[in-house]
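Trying the structure run again after the queue cleared.
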Amino acid sequence: MPLRDFEQDNITTPVTLLLNSPGGSVTDGFFLAQYLANYSKPLNIIVPGYAASMAAVILAGGGKNPNVVRYCYPSTYALIHDGYVALSASEAKTANDIMAFNNKVDADVRDFIINNTNITAEEFDAQARHQWFLSADEMLKYNLIDKIYGRDA
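Done. Tokens:
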């Protein structure tokens, strides 16, 4: 993984990560959010357009890490929502197992967002069944980004 390589070299110049994504699989991307929460070298994350779904979770990963600075533009937005699942199971018990796993993943993501942003449990839970679109100003308010180009940067 390139970020790990950058973290292990002797260079102290910040790395810049461009994050502009409609999201993706939580099981494929959650590790990156957790990795960013503990990244040990200077890292700038720039969101030029949007950080939706899993990308918003990844962006939240830098929220409490003093090595990470997250930027966006005034027109940037984020989207937070609960997970999607499509089931095709031959037995009801299998479908129940899949749903139990997905409920656990949703709970893990919820806790991660709450622990790494300024979003409270009450605010998150109030939006849990909705597509929660956040403007750049709301992203700043909730600590999904640190600076808005043209205003703070």
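The helical segments are 2-8, 26-37, 54-60, 92-116, 121-127, 136-141. Worth checking whether this holds up in the mutant runs.
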